[in-house]
Amino acid sequence: MAPTRRLTGFKPTGHLHLGNLLGALRPLIAAQDHTESIAMIADLHAMTMDHEPGRLRALALEQATVLLAAGVDPARTPIILQSQVAEHTELHYLLECATGFGEASRMIQFKEKSAAGGPIRLSLLTYPVLMAADILLHDIDEVPVGEDQNQHLELTRTIANRFNARYGPTFRVPEGVRPESAARIMDLADPAVKMGKSNAAGAGRIALLDPPEVIRRTVARAVTDELAQVRRHPDQPGVTNLVGILAECTGQQPSDPVSYGALKREVTDAIESVVAPIRARHAELADDPAHVREILAKGAEAVRPRARATVRRTRAALGLLQ
Ligand code: AQP
Predict the structure, then answer these.
(1) Among 109, 24, 12, which Cα is nearest to 65's?
(2) Calpha distance 114→135 (Å, rounded)
(3) Could you say which of 78, 140, 157, 177 would form a disulfide bridge with 299 (CB–CB 3.0 to 4.6 Å)?
(4) What are 53-69's pLDDT values in tens digits?
(5) Closest Cα to atom 11, ligand 1: which residue?
(6) Predicted confidence (pLDDT) per residue in 225-238, tens digit
(7) Within a 10 A sphere around the Cβ of 179, how many other Cβ atoms?
(8) Set 111, 113, 264, 298: catalytic member
(9) Are residues 153 and 277 in the same domain?
């Protein structure tokens, strides 16, 4: 049986953080042995909100470098830059011709982000269609999705099923899967929200390239509570998050009983032991950006034949002259 094909994407809207590592990057690396995965830096998705061109370029290269430093093996898992495989945008347009305005405007993320005010880019509305194109282009079987992406994956499935029924079998219909690790890492300064790349303050974010001193300070300032009990409990979101991070980083629960101070020291050490090798390898790789760019070019080359075939199939199904 052919190995399962998976797609995992990272949006270069900021520096990759501990949440990205534990929730997406480690599962991707672990799956390299038994899946045919593609790692995608979704730079086109990073342009749906106001963006700064130089920063986008720098972050795209940095994320590719961090993926390599963390252990993504480009020989098994092509690392691609979304914008360098032009078939993504071609299929995006073709799928727009098979998607309703109502379907796109119903997406919760669009409603939330557009409600924030300011000019709204049209690409924010059509972004889930581009995501559908990303997935359908590569004949993906499985997409690891967090809850916030469920609705977009469902839209992908709807578009694919409807297209297949209307124009003939064209797309493989993907399944959403929960990542192997159930980790949802919360912001250390505000455990009610997930750790994110573009959270305004970023005071509770651990970036994978943060120096040890910054990590120590961020954990030391992590929000806890007055209960003085080291356990996972809904009434203790801050402590639950720290215990969860410790468990994910070490595979162990904290030794019991332990003070919050001791817990934070254990968490700091555990994070440091996970990120130190990534930081060190990143420093080596960052010395040779041409090598990383070459890996991206090779990744694009590796996925292009399948992408071209999908676009050809789609164009033919829609009645475009070949
Ligand atoms: N806090 C998190 N805990 C666990 N997993 C997480 N992921 C993101 N944050 C956490 C997973 O990382 C992958 C890549 O995420 P993304 O680049 O698409 O961005 P995102 O999901 O929107 O996360 P961010 O970091 O919060 O980005 P911004 O701030 O730009 O919106 C995904 O698999 C995601 O589930």
Answers:
(1) 12
(2) 24
(3) 78
(4) 999 999 999 999 999 99
(5) 20
(6) 999 888 889 999 99
(7) 20
(8) 113
(9) no
CB 188 within 8 A of CB 222: yes
Mean pLDDT (whole number) for 110-136: 93
Counting beta carbons within 10 angstroms of the beta carbon of residue 115, is it exposed (0 to 12), middle (13 to 18) or buried (19 or more)? Answer: exposed
Structure tokens at 289: 């950006």
Q: Which domain holds residue 278?
A: 212-284
Domain assignment of residue 192, yes or no: no
Between CA 83 and CA 42 the distance in angstroms is: 8
- Ligand 1 centroid to residue 20 C-alpha, Å: 6
**Furthest C-alpha separation in the chain:** 71
What kind and span of H or E run contains 37?
Answer: strand 35-41
> Within 13 Å, how many C-alpha atoms sit on residue 77's CB side?
28
Q: How confident is the model at residue 200 (pLDDT cuts 50, 70, 90)?
A: low
Contact 114, 74 (CB under 8 A): no
**Claim to verify: residue 125 and residue 224 sit in the same structural domain:** no
Torsion of CA 271, 273, 279, 280, to 10 degrees: 170
Please tell me the total count of domains within the chain.
Answer: 2
Pocket residue to mutate for ligand 1, from 7, 10, 11, 25, most atoms within 8 A of Cβ: 11
Among all chains, which residue has been given the structure tokens 């430093």?
Answer: 69
Report the chain's C-alpha Rg in angstroms.
Answer: 21
What's the CA gap between 134 and 297, in Å, rounded?
17
Which amino acid is residue 41, in one-letter code?
A: I
For residue 19, how far is its CA from the centre of ligand 1 (angstroms)?
A: 7
